[in-house]
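Project standup — Tuesday

K.O.: blocked on the structure for the chain from last sprint. Re-posting the sequence here as requested.
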Amino acid sequence: MPVKSNVLKKASWLGGLVLKMADRWKTRFSDAGDVFLFIGRTFRELFSRDFEFKEFLFQCYKIGYKSLPLISITGAVMGLVLTIQSRPILLEFGAVSMLPGMVSVSLIREMGPVITALICAGKVGSGMGAELGSMRVTEQIDAMEVSSTNPMRFLVVTRVLAATLMIPILVLYADLLGIFGSWAGANLKGSVSFVLFFSQAFAVVEFIDFVPAVIKTFFFGGVIGFVGTYKGYNAGRGTVSVGIAANSAVVVASLLVIIVDMIAVQITDMLIL
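H.V.: unblocked you, prediction finished:
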C-alpha cells in the first residue's frame, strides 16, 4: 500500500507539472498571436485614409526635439571617450593619423546607431509604455473606442511612425556630434586642425559603411515604437501595471535592438563577401 500511494503521488505531481508547462506554453503562444495581430492592425491603420497628421507631428516633436539634449551629450561623449581610449594604442604603432578614420567608421557603422537606439529605448520606449498604460488604467482608451475616435490610428500608428522616422535622424545627429567630440579629444594632447580632422574622418567612409547603418536605424525605431505602444496599449487595469508596462517596454525594446543589430551585421557581412 505505501508503495502504491507513493506512485500515485509521483504521478499526480508529474501530471500537475505537465499541466503547468502546458498552460505556460499556451500563454506564450497566445501572447505571440496577440503581438502579430497588433502589428497587423497597426499596418492596416497606417494605410487608412484618415491619418492623424497633427498627432504625428506632435510625436515627432516629442521623440526628436525633446531627445536632443540627451542625444547631444551621448554623441559627444562617445567620440571623446573612443578617441581618448584609442589614441595611446595608435601612438605606440605610429598610426595616430588613422585615428579620425577609425573613430568615424566605428561611430557610423556600430557605436552610434546601437548606443543611440538603446538610449531612445530607455527614454522613448518607457515614455510610450507609461503614457499609454496610464491611459488604459484611467479608461481613456476605452472612451476613445466607445466614441468615433480610433485609438489604434491616433495613439499607436502615429507613435510608431514617428519613432521610425526620428530615431535615424537622431542617430545621424549623434554620429556628427561624436566626430566633433573625437576632434576635441584629439586636441587634448595634440593639435589637429578642424578641416584636416574631418577630411581624414570622412575620407575612409564608404557606401557599405554608411547605408546599411542608416537602414538598420529605421528598424530600430520601428522596434522601439511597436514595443512601447504594445506594452502600454495592452497594460493591465491596476496602477501597478503602468510601471510594469514602462519597465518591460525598455527591457524588451533594448533586447530586440541588439538582436536586430546582430542580424543586420550578418547581412552586411554577406553583402561585403
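K.O.: great, moving the ticket to review. The chain is about 85% helix and 0% strand. Residues 2-46 form the longest helix (45 residues).
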